[in-house]
Amino acid sequence: MAIDTGLDIIFTTSASSIKFGIGATNELGYELKRLGVKNTLIITDKNIVEIGLAEKVKAIIENEDIKADITNQRFLNWYKEL
After folding, report:
1. β-strands 2-4, 9-11 pairing
2. Is the four-CA dihedral 24, 29, 34, 39 of positive or negative sign?
3. I need a labelling partner for 29 at 20 to 30 A (CA). Which of 5, 18, 66, 75 fits?
């Protein structure tokens, strides 16, 4: 949002939290629970599924009693099915 004061312009933003580094993925379940998430869909590609990372992330999420599903299918015009 920009407010014109006649002298300068002030911008106000609400930044989201960004976590990175060793162990950041392990906090995913906690962050989703903190946000009140009950169900998730992990959309990824076949390579991430093949190396087992998608299942690791799913387990981290489910450890917080949040339902998680994984897909590596491409959705064309998925919004038309809603």
Report:
1. antiparallel
2. positive
3. 75
Strands 39-43, 67-71: parallel, antiparallel or unpaired by DSSP? parallel
Between CA 82 and CA 62 the distance in angstroms is: 25
pLDDT in tens, the chain (82 residues): 556 556 666 667 777 778 889 999 999 999 999 999 999 999 999 999 999 999 999 999 999 999 999 998 876 665 665 5
**6 located within any domain:** no
Number of domains in the chain: 1
CATH assignment of the domain containing 40: 3.40.50.11840
The domain of 32 spans: 19-81
